[in-house]
Amino acid sequence: MSIKQIHFEFASMPAPKKTGGLMAQQRSEPPETPFLQLGREVYYKETFGNEVFLTDILGVTDGPLTFVQMAKAILALKGEGTSNLQVELAKDAVIGGRAFKKGEKIDTGIDVVKGSMVPLGMPVVFREGKPKIGLTCIACHATVDPETKQVIEGVKNTDLNSGLLLAMATNSAAFFTHANTDRLEQYIQDVTRVVPKEDGGQAALPDPKALEDAVDRVLLQWPPGFFDTTIDLVANPTDIPHTFARDAEPYSWSGFAMAGPHQGLSAFGSNVHSFSTDTTSIAEHAKPFLGIDKEVYFGTILQNSANPRYRYDPASGILPSEFFRQVDPTPDAPGILEVFKLPSYPRVSMIGPSGLFSGSPGYRVGEQINASSAWQKTLRVPTRGTILPEAAVQGEQIFRKADCIRCHAGPAYTNHRILPAEELGTEPSRSQAFQRIVTRLDATLFYSEDTPIPVPPGAKVIEAEPRGWSEEEVKLAWGIGGPEGKQGGYKVPSLRALAFTAPYLHDGGAAAGEDVTSQLGLPGTVLKGIKADPANSLRVLLDRNLREKAIAANRRAGLPSSLHMEGVGHEYWVDTEAGYTKEQQDALIEYLLHLPEEGPRAIAE
């Protein structure tokens, strides 16, 4: 079954094999079944219609960063490909208090595969006489090898500058739910710009320019390689994770994706599309989730839409929700995207925080996301360089001696547990992000796998309870229960692909460049356009003295208060104060960068 959109096609062959050096080698898997082929197609191409939100409402290509300028930048590559598309801005602009000049080149972090004429994971669709750009999984969860210019699947796009790209949009205010904007009334400048409220009366809308400026100031602070996936009115972007998902459940930083198909992986994949990248999807929940009247919520998002067709005029006298209903491309689904309501909708479900699940008409429920989940589980971590046998042996011994294996055991280097953020000592904001929307969790109801989309009346309902997780861990994953300020936890992450995922910790605060003396913390690395060095960033994670310096750098930049990024916690040291030599620390780092695919017991046995 084909994707129901017109896309530019491009080839993406795995990187050629090579030993040593810095080039990654992606190992092959057995031939794909039709189901896995669908999963790969979804991962590469499926947007679930988000090009409408990104282009028509948000306006990502209507500001100084235009579709034409992106096309020119790709043509200038002459087919060579890049891991960081540099684009000249089309016009002068002041965004979030920062001046941008026409002709200035910006680092987008967008990848282009060698021989391709479109960005990786950003398919172009022609509708209503204009090109529209969408976003697929692979835009964030893959990169282009700097040497071969071919795709390395499953690793994170470490330099994707999503905050900058969103800030360049003409209506980034539509993303206000991710930007420390919990009091919309502070942006009201004209009390006559009112909308009827859902529960009666009237309310003024925030000034679009004032709100835009506030949102942009936050977005411009996002480090490359990070994204904020929670609609909680708080700016807490997290490091984009890899997608080497086999044996790595539960999923997400907090582990909330723990129920339903593929041990929760499908819930995780669906959430990104049905909840994280379309703020219109939770309009029906705006009041209970965020304390914002539904009509005010819709009006705020749509009042400055890039496409006039989707732009709401408060002087029209029409309810914002009624206006949205008239222009909604998916009238049978809440919000813009192609989703369907779970049986428990509108109640929160462990399979979908908004009570929704991604799926396109013409498919069966869960078919696309489940296929993508199955395909992700076939991905194997690429190799990068080699490790000397003696370093492998010594590093594995230190891994055990330092008791890393207590939490990071098994083939995915995780014990799958969810630990309180307070116990880990890490920044707790992200672990508590669902507190606004969850007070209790309903049963994990789904539909039988033969149910078509749109879901017909009377469709068979099944239940998929989470298995293996204690009540305490469920509460930690969803940030509910416990005393005020101490709710929430983080899942023990998989250690796969550490060579490709620096900086470390969920907030990326454990960061260092090639010069560990001067390039420390996020301000000394990715916020300066300097890539975090995997070995030195691991050294920051393991060495308390270096960590203190990295934390100090993050604090001086104000990151803990503005983005909830600090780099604290996970105080499991392998340094001289803990009784380890520099050589032992080096050996452990080498081992971590070259972990055996079969798990930590492989070398010792």
What features would you describe in this structure?
- Among the domains are: 33-156, no CATH class; 388-416 and 493-604, no CATH class.
- It is built from 19 helices and 20 strands.
- The chain has helices at 34-45, 50-58, 67-76, 137-140, 162-167, 208-219, 265-276, 286-290, 294-302, 320-327, 367-376, 389-401, 421-424, 471-478, 534-542, 544-556, 559-562, 582-593, 601-604; strands at 24-25, 86-88, 93-95, 98-100, 105-107, 124-127, 130-133, 142-144, 151-153, 194-196, 202-204, 226-227, 238-239, 339-341, 356-358, 383-384, 418-420, 445-447, 461-463, 489-491.
- The relative contact order is 0.12.
- The model is unreliable at 1-22 (pLDDT under 50).
Q: For the largest beta sheet, what order do the strands appear in spatially?
A: 1-16
| Structural class by sheet pairing and helices | alpha+beta
Beta content comes to: 5-15%
Q: Ends: how far apart?
A: 46 Å
Q: Got a strand count?
A: 20
Low-confidence blocks of residues: 1-22
Number of discrete helical segments: 19
Envelope shape: globular
Mean pLDDT: 90
Report the sheet with the most strands, covering strand number, pairing sense and barrel closure: 2 strands, antiparallel
Computed over alpha carbons, the radius of gyration is 23 Å
Helix content: 25-40%
